[in-house]
Amino acid sequence: MDFQLSDSQRALQEMARKFAREVIRPKAAHYDETSHFPREIITQAWENGLLNMAIPEAYGGLGLSHVDQLLAYEELAWGCAGMATSITANDLANLPIIVGANEEQKKRLLTPFTEKFKLASFCLTEPEAGSDVANMSTTAVRDGDHYVLNGAKCFITNGGHADQYTVFATLDKAKKHKGITCFVVEGRPKGLTVGKHENKMGQRASDTVALTFEDVRVPVANRIGEEGEGWRIAMETLDNSRPITAILSVGIARAALEYSLEYSAQRKTFGKPIREHQGIQFMLADMAMNTQAARLLCHQSAWLLDQGQRASLQSSYAKCFAADMAMKVATDAVQVYGGYGYIKEYPVEKLMRDAKLIQIYEGTSQVQRLVIARELFK
After folding, report:
1. Is residue 74 flagged as an active site residue?
2. E strands in 204-300
3. Taking Cα atoms as reference points, which of 192, 171, 197, 193 lies closest to residue 182?
4. Alpha-carbon span 39 to 156, nearest angstrom
5. What CA–CA distance (Å, rounded) separates 54 from 310?
């Protein structure tokens, strides 16, 4: 085991940290308050190589390892988890292509993202099929050299701004997961309707919408994998993406800890800074300890993936522990601030709202525990 970062990794980390400090964080409160989409900032992220980090070099991308991506995404989430989520959405949407597409599809569908600024959305969740993915209702019917998609997706990140959609639909609902197939929808074809932007509690800088597909025609050439392989592609995608989602929690928690350390040194009660009270010291110690534990779980799962090993168990460890940890750390940060922590003028209440979403999306903390248990039973 080697916990040292290479020179290139340190340079990547510092570049992402500088971008988060100078570009993201100064605007974070504004976008949280207005819930406007920070397109300009995400475009700057693309210009700095902080978008599409998973696209292999063969298709014009950086081809960063999972560990490398984690180093960058922790910094971005430290700046603003909502913006970080919108930045990671491209990698999530492109991962099914990376893990399941043929060579021609990879060149055609991935390369354009490295040539100009484009956004993509991952479309799996439905109103009746969130945790229960096999209950999917969006259908795909073969019609000559096309498939016709009908159905609805919800909670789609960047859905209102995307140029490409990775969509999962079923060829036969009676087959449950064995009927699910993956498709790539390019542009905004006839029949694709974008719903209103959801007014979320947290991560308000990320765009979240519902999508409706009414007789949307998709070329057979845009089917990723074979018919019925969508479930496998989706699960492999999530195994690869969960360490990244988990590291967003670490970025949130680190920000909460840093704000708490700063405030507890300034705020005085009973004649001394509150950080000199043992009750506060114990809270700060737990915040730091659990943030580091989550970071190590994230890096272990990412390292396993970089070695080509299966990491379903470790990815779920990381996602579940880190999400629950960030919620606890952010809540404790509000407590350290006392009454001021509950006021929007101060930064920690946003972190608490942002952290909550990571316990829900890309597999709830309860679903992660189911995955963990099933892996243990094997």
Report:
1. no
2. 208-219, 223-224, 268-269, 272-273
3. 171
4. 16
5. 18
Residue pair 168/136 in contact (Cβ under 8 Å)? The answer is yes
pLDDT on residue 9: 97
Q: In 307-364, which ranges are continuous DSSP H helix? A: 312-337, 348-358
Instruction: Please give the angle made by the CA atoms of 331, 335 and 337, to the nearest 5 degrees.
Output: 120
Catalytic residue among 74, 126, 236, 362: 362
Residue with tokens 């840093």: 258
Rg (CA), the chain: 21
Give the separation between CA 79 and CA 15, rounded to whole angstroms: 13
pTM exceeds cut of 0.85: yes
User: Mutual orientation of helices 278-306 and 312-337 as an angle, nearest 10°?
Assistant: 160
Q: What percent of the chain has pLDDT over 90?
A: 97
pLDDT tens digits, one per residue of 95-153: 999 999 999 999 999 999 999 999 999 999 999 888 888 899 999 999 999 999 999 99
The yes-or-no verdict on residue 80 having pLDDT over 90 is: yes
**Residue found by looking up tokens 């570049």 in the block:** 15
Contacts of residue 317, defined as CB under 8 A and 6 or more positions apart, other chains included, come to 297, 301, 372
Query: Mind listing the pLDDT tens digit for each residue in 37-72?
Result: 999 999 999 999 999 999 999 999 999 999 999 999
φ, ψ for residue 268 (rounded to 5)? Answer: -115, 140
pLDDT at position 129 is 87
β-partners of residue 129 are 126
The SS3 call for residue 65 is: coil
Token reading at 344: 């929007």
- Strand 192-194 vs strand 180-186: parallel, antiparallel, or unpaired? unpaired
Pick the closest to residue 225 from 216, 215, 234 (CA basis). Answer: 234
Q: CB under 8 Å to 230, separation ≥6 — which residues?
A: 168, 169, 170, 180, 181, 182, 224
